[in-house]
Design a protein that fits this description.
512 residues; mainly alpha; two-stranded antiparallel ribbon; 1% strand
């Protein structure tokens, strides 16, 4: 059985001395073994790409990153965004060459071998499930907080909230891919509207020279000092590392994790209409989205709220900059508004995770020789991998059960944080696969070509390695860094050895 529908005239083997160059094959010819429906339109993919870059971290976690490094956090977001753009260009180029692939992970198998492909495939699926578990917990927590702003206590119903959200989002994924795309379109629209509203509010405040008094903000200990809205709140006393270079370097990992799931658009290509027209546009516009939605929002926040006004609460949390800004603008129900948007952001992430996990499990089942796994490699009459989606959803459903058991809950938190760290290995393998692709006979010179790949591939890899190293420098992330490294050595070693023994057995069988 071939991996990832890779049965082509060429083997796809990486060679540094390739003497021929592949020609662009039509999507129709590559789609002969693609059973999925191309139901995602251009606007769906564009907003899915936007949604992948905007998570709950921007709305709730940006206060911590601002407090950590001050205005220089803007440069950190730009720098990390550029690296993630390189990752997306690499994924985009490979997906452009073969848009019938259900996931960019397939190219790791094609160009780095089945051992690394098996490691990446199963690791990424496990990461998606663990991340989905944390997201469903986050959804219920934000839901309770939202209704709490109206004096309604739903703490005892968290399990039911999680169940309802999971069933609803799994149902959306089961109906049809275009229904999923439409849901993500509106989820993203809600997030974008709040960010644009924030930026417009800042512009109006700047024009009129708005001032506000000391105010109590929900989620912030004590009273936040008053100030006058001005760009000088950003530039006065500017330092690259006002709280020390260690905090500055630690901010890179925080921002990196905020960008996670940006690669999700690389899972939608096999179900996208006109993929070779839509994919380059979605990837190339990524930088503009980063500048507008991340950098624009941060500039707006710090122009309104001086960065020194962001302090850690007694419980270790930080107030939401969005709540602070809209509260200063006179919106008394700012907390309710922001948490409503945060609920949609978390639900959007969970929706995407269910979609992606279903496709990855379907791919793993397609490549498996196990009869039990083969049952998951089926597409429903709605042209979606229904069984793989349901199984993935059921795995995420274990989250409320795990959270209810104190002894297991602590271990789950470690595994969930380690899962985020393990994604770095997937990114490194993806860049290595792209490097091999450019050296192979599969390379399309007329495709969606990433420039200066000989240098930029290694710059991205070096950055990902550096981010992983910084995980060892903080007590909060040391455990996840060690756990991730153990996973790489044990499971990665197993996958490589298993491939080696299989190849040896095959070679001996052929000799006989």
């Amino acid at each position: 059985m071939t991996f990832g529908n890779t049965k082509t005239e060429k083997t796809g083997t990486s060679t540094s001395d390739a003497t021929e160059t592949a020609h662009i094959k039509s999507v129709e010819s590559l789609d002969q073994s693609n059973e999925m429906e191309r139901g995602l339109k251009n606007r769906h993919v564009q907003f899915i790409a936007i949604g992948g870059t905007i998570g709950t971290g921007l709305f709730l976690g940006s206060g911590k990153s601002i407090a950590l490094t001050g205005p220089s956090i803007i440069f950190v977001y730009i720098g990390v965004g550029l690296i993630m753009f390189l990752l997306m260009r690499a994924i985009g180029e490979m997906m452009y060459s073969d848009p019938s692939q259900h996931t960019f992970i397939n190219f790791i198998t094609r160009y780095l071998g089945r051992g690394w492909g098996k490691f990446a495939g199963w690791t990424y699926w496990i990461v998606l499930i663990l991340t989905g578990m944390t997201e469903i917990t986050a959804v219920s927590t934000y839901f309770v907080t939202f209704f709490g702003t109206f004096g309604i206590d739903l703490n005892s119903w968290k399990w039911l909230i999680e169940l309802c959200f999971l069933v609803a989002l799994t149902g959306i994924n089961l109906i049809a891919v275009k229904v999923f795309g439409e849901a993500e379109f509106w989820f993203s629209m809600i997030k974008i509207t709040l960010i644009v509203g924030l930026i417009v509010t800042a512009i109006v405040m700047l024009i009129i020279g708005f001032s506000y008094p000391a105010t109590h903000i929900e989620g912030v200990d004590g009273t936040v000092s008053g100030a006058t809205v001005s760009l000088t709140n950003i530039t006065d006393g500017f330092q690259l590392a006002p709280n020390g270079w260690m905090n500055f370097f630690m901010s890179f990992q925080m921002v990196f994790f905020a960008y996670q799931l940006i690669e999700f658009v690389g899972v939608t290509v096999s179900e996208t209409q006109n993929p070779r027209e839509v994919l380059p546009k979605a990837v190339n516009e990524l930088i503009m989205r980063i500048l507008i939605f991340y950098v624009g929002a941060l500039i707006a926040i710090m122009a309104i709220v001086p960065w020194r006004n962001f302090h850690e609460n007694s419980d270790g949390s930080f107030g939401s900059p969005f709540i602070m800004v809209f509260k200063y603008a006179g919106l008394d129900w700012a907390a309710a508004l922001v948490f409503f948007v945060v609920i949609t952001a978390a639900a959007s992430a969970l929706n995407s995770l269910i979609y992606s996990a279903g496709r990855h499990l379907y791919q793993l089942a397609s490549d498996s020789e196990s009869p039990a796994m083969a049952r998951l490699a089926e597409v429903s009459e709605h042209k979606v991998p229904a069984k793989a989606i349901v199984v993935s959803g059921c795995m995420i459903l274990f989250s409320p059960i795990i959270n209810a058991i104190p002894g297991i809950s602590g271990a789950f938190v470690l595994f969930a944080s380690a899962a985020s760290a393990v994604v770095i290995f997937i990114y490194v393998l993806t860049m290595l696969a792209h490097h091999k692709y450019r050296q192979s006979s599969d390379f399309l010179p007329d495709g969606f070509v990433m420039p200066a790949w000989q240098v930029l591939d290694w710059i991205a890899i070096a950055f990902f390695v550096l981010v992983y190293v910084t995980l060892f420098l903080s007590a909060d992330t040391l455990g996840s860094a060690i756990a991730g490294l153990i996973w790489l050595v044990t499971f990665g070693g197993y996958c490589l050895l298993h491939e080696r023994f299989q190849n040896r057995d095959l070679k001996e069988a052929l000799q006989q």
